[in-house]
Amino acid sequence: MKAKLTLTVDEDLIPVAKHYAGLKGVSLSRMVEEALRKLAKPATPDPRFSRRWRGAFAPAGKDSPRYRMLAKRYL
What we know:
Layout: H1 13-24, H2 28-40, H3 49-53, H4 65-74
């Protein structure tokens, strides 16, 4: 069941959004609906370790004692 919704957006954005929707071959309403569905969908975590932890740690500097210890051992 569809229902009307009134949104307030910057007036300069409306023609740009309509043009973009036209390029995609969908109506602006459909494009907004799909975007809202994507936002409302719970994100499933990526099962790969590297993807889950990417960006979680800052790299150690070369002056770090841990870096020096690891470099001595593995480099």
